[in-house]
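Quick board copy: two proteins, each given as sequence then tokens.
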Amino acid sequence: MTEEALTLAEKLWRAHSVAQLDGGTDLLLIDRVLLHERTGGVALKSLADAGRSVMAPQQVFATMDHIVDTLPGRSDKTLMPTGTAFLTATREGALAAGITLFDLHDPRQGIVHVVSPEQGIVLPGVTLVCPDSHTCTQGAFGALAWGIGSTEAEHALATMTLRVARPLNMRIRIDNELAAGVTAKDLALHIVATLGSAGAKGHIVEFAGTAVEALDMEARMTLCNLATELAAFGATIAPDDKTFSYLKGRPYAPTGDMWDQAVALWSTLRSDVGAMFAAEHVIDAAAVTPMVTWGTSPQQAMALGDTVPDFTTASARDSRDAYDRALSYMGIAAGEALGDLTIDAAFIGSCTNSRITDLRRAAAILKGRKVANGVRAICVPGSSQVKLAAEAEGLDRIFTDAGFEWRESGCSMCFFAGGESFGPEERVISSTNRNFESRQGPRTRTHLASPETVAASALAGRITDPRALEALP
């Protein structure tokens, strides 16, 4: 009898299937639940009000990231009018439930999708859920990770299971090598622009190929993070020696003999030869160049140096109304070069690009240079540990000497809900993951790009290819 060839996602799914239910759904075992203060306190309170308890508190972790301010000297009193209540409710709920909380002044605090890998909470082969869209970031470790709603979070907390419709499998194979100066963020935006914002709807995406294998773990997280902008259920990358090396010694990773046993198991977590995918796409990494968005969706992206596409080019993914509205909102016209427009602000941060490697690459561009007059530039590290590591290396001084604000860790201006924002019609170059209308503040115009492009643009005062900056003597 020939053993069935399975994809990585199918292996993870089958290993966690408790029961097959009607309507193409399964009841899945959930290994880890992550919470943050914007939705976590609500879920914990609702659970307690219903007279239910957290089933496995040792497998639940909460952090303060979405609403907490990132200004120096921050406290429970936040810019968001009701923010204090969210922080307090999460703290009280976590304490009562006995779950681990990375509170405001805990050295482990930070963005949930930065903290989890940092602490070794996500591990290859686990199922992990969080009431946050970009949970698939953590699929970079060979985990099955996806975003859920508050009601689902409540169910997962009470039962450590979830009823989930079975997704299809998609493989995006990325061959060849990225050119010098081209990053995982550029690759991700290239893929979203190519496949469209619904390009992976209903699928678990497996990223594979030589270009993916060449990425370090933090770049792999960036790539999986943007799978959310393909409408993917989740994203995975088969774990390898880079994965194991990243996790070894992390606080919640296995130790001793358990580590060796875990690595032996994790090494089997890859798609079998002959495994069938419902859809497959091939991307040539060598053809990717630094990218930037021109519109109000991540799929409205183009290569730096190109001009804003006309409707004929964009019509494969955008309706006429959506295209016209994006141009009007962003204050641009078809055929326009974005580099001809001045920017008002630059932002480096968010779960997409706030890790130490992101800050190092941006600092290498900023070192010895000054942000252009009139540009407000902000850097928000992804976690307190990232901030401390950056300060130990002197990166904070490079940012501040260049003219950047250096903040405490958190989600900050990735989105406006926390109260931090840029101004109406201000044009912002940003390392975040979404450029929707008013995403970074009421009527703010956001252009997504890599940390390198954000840094270079902040220096030039206009959207700039970092490869075009002249080398310092």
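And the next:
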Amino acid sequence: MQSFTYERAASAEQAAAAVAARPDAKFISGGTNLLDLMKLEIERPAHLVDISRLPLDRIEETAAGGLRVGAQVRNSDLAADPRVRSHYPMLTQALLAGASGQIRNKASTSGNLLQRTRCPYFYDRNMPCNKRDPGSGCAALQGFNRMHAVLGASQACIAVHPSDMAVAMAGLDARIETISPGGETRTIPIGDLHRLPEATPHVETVLGHGEMITAVTLPPPPPGRQVYRKVRDRASYAFALVSVAAIVEKSGDRIRRARIAMGGVAAKPWRASEAERTLAGAKASDGAFTDAAEAALAGAVGYGGNDFKIPLAKRTMRHTLAAAAESA
């Protein structure tokens, strides 16, 4: 690990200004991802601004009937909050499906959203990786790509985003609040936070340098039943091969509305809008769920080792929708 300087921020405004003042500075909160990357010298910040003790650790009810989750709320606290468990159960399910208990006790809401890919070539400094070293190439394209993207990838990068929490939040239409170095604030729909790789996979979000996430707002609980399902190589502490977050609202035996987000398939939480349109007004049936899954994966492309993800994602979506519709 290279040497670095450190300061503890006294306010969100001061933290944003401190990072913006130096191009080699970064925020640190739980550090569950950043410190690993620094040990491997994949991340080499010369200055760290600690935001972990800022008063952004509360979960508050909004006037609109939703919840405002502070950026420093720990993953374990968010999963255990009775309002989240009761009204946003798929968010609790997703959080508990991610990482280990020890990591959830340390990881923050904002850090979870901004964690970096677990692509093995990104972590191996002996291999080319456009995300780590822009212009160096993508070893995963012709390499071991079992965990990689089948949607939204490019010839520059086929890595996936690793978060479970972000997938559930995408299905819930969460919104991200930020503060910029000048004190300006903005709200970003979660679907617009992460970028697809295209030709610049090292640019992973729309946040500017020094722009800091302060909170995530969840809209009022949506009608219908919520289910998060994660398929992985072992029962615990593994990243998703495929995950699906689904909310199904029914009227009689027909689907009034469905919301679907997928994980493990793209560089960002993937909203399956085509599948949602396919299900609107359809009779809840295996045929409708199959049609939705086919629509969701219509543009999927495999790279050899990850070809299996396409049928796996279809099956996972079908079963998740059936579970959500069963008692919606």
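Board note added afterward: The chain has 13 helices and twelve strands.
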